[in-house]
Specification:
8 helices; 9-stranded antiparallel β-sheet; single chain
Length: 329
């Protein structure tokens, strides 16, 4: 994979020219949005002065103003979405291919719900909202991987409906280089439930055990206080789970988790490794109110991309040792 120095050289020798074009489009888009709202406001004022006011139809003026606002927002969202989609396809797509020729990029695709559910990282939480974007897939050296941003949530029905976010962030699937006998998952540790003493405590515990969903698999008791204070591990095959979560792997997961308040989740299942890294920041996303004509933006894209690839390497049980193995900057 290309280094940061290579990306800087690529920016100077070719990408900057393309970004100049998109910077012009971005400024033109800002003007078009302002013109759209100005035109709609003008129409509402004209209706007020020459049509509705003489007929004493003031309520309709309020309705017309509200409709104009909705139409203006809708038109603006469509124009901004078109600009971002074109930017991602032409700029981010070129960057991905430059950094690693074996990778493909699709801004409107994402990891499938089947892959998300198969790894059992969120099996105790039901979801009815599943969407994402910015799918990258292919090979880096001899490592096959795919990752994208995901937004997974559950919306309750009824009068007092609410939405609970289950996961929002980077979701990665990488070839493990081997087939696992069962599934092993590493989840963020939860605070122990404070129960009253005596029979009441036993009764409450029995209710919790009966009605609160728990991860499938056997809970692994690992002799690692630092790891166990942040994570719990469950495995279908205890021997395999302990083999996978050796001291080196536990240290890697702790290091990765330090970037997200130890909320990272890792699963080893079938012949894949799965990583769910929560984040509130959109990757590969240009900002309408900020210039796209700066190297810092390109560097941020490069860092996001590199971080995803580093995740795949860090949690892969089998080391990548052949001559095609990637070297991370």
């Amino acid at each position: 994979m290309k280094s940061l120095r290579d990306v800087k050289e690529y920016y100077r020798n070719g990408l900057a020219g393309e970004l100049h074009r998109f910077e012009h489009q971005r400024r033109s888009l800002q003007v078009r949005i302002l013109v759209t709202f100005a035109a709609l406001v003008t129409i509402v004022i004209c209706l007020h002065l020459w049509v509705l006011r003489p007929l004493d139809l003031f309520p309709f003026i309020i309705v017309a103003g509200f409709l104009a606002l909705i139409i203006g927002i809708g038109i603006s969202v469509m124009m901004v979405s078109r600009f971002k989609r074109q930017f991602k396809t032409e700029i981010i797509g070129r960057l991905v291919h430059f950094m690693e020729e074996g990778l493909e990029y699709a801004p409107r695709k994402h990891i499938t719900a089947q892959a998300f559910e198969r790894c059992r990282l969120f099996e105790t939480q039901r979801h009815n909202i599943f969407r994402g974007e910015d799918l990258v897939w292919g090979k880096v050296g001899n490592l096959e991987l795919q990752f994208s941003e995901l937004y997974v949530a559950h919306r309750s029905g009824g009068k007092n409906s609410s939405t609970t976010i289950i996961f929002r962030g980077l979701f990665l699937v990488a070839d493990a280089g081997r087939t696992f006998r069962g599934t092993t998952v590493v989840l963020p540790a939860t605070s122990p439930l404070q129960l009253p003493e005596g029979r009441l405590g036993e009764f409450v515990k029995s209710l919790v055990d009966k009605f609160v969903p728990k991860p499938t698999g056997q809970l692994l008791e690992l002799d690692d206080p630092a790891f166990s204070s942040h994570f719990t591990a469950h495995a279908d095959d205890e021997e395999e789970g302990r083999e996978l979560l050796d001291e080196t792997m536990r240290q890697r997961i702790l290091a990765l988790g330090s970037e997200c308040d130890q909320k990272i989740r890792v699963a080893f299942s079938d012949n894949n490794v799965y990583v769910a890294l929560p984040t509130k920041r959109n990757m590969f996303e240009p900002k309408l109110l900020k210039t796209v004509l700066n190297y810092e933006l390109v560097e941020a894209f490069f860092q996001d991309f590199s971080r995803a690839c580093e995740l795949a390497v860090a949690v892969r049980p089998s080391p990548v040792t052949d001559t095609g193995s990637p070297e991370w900057p």
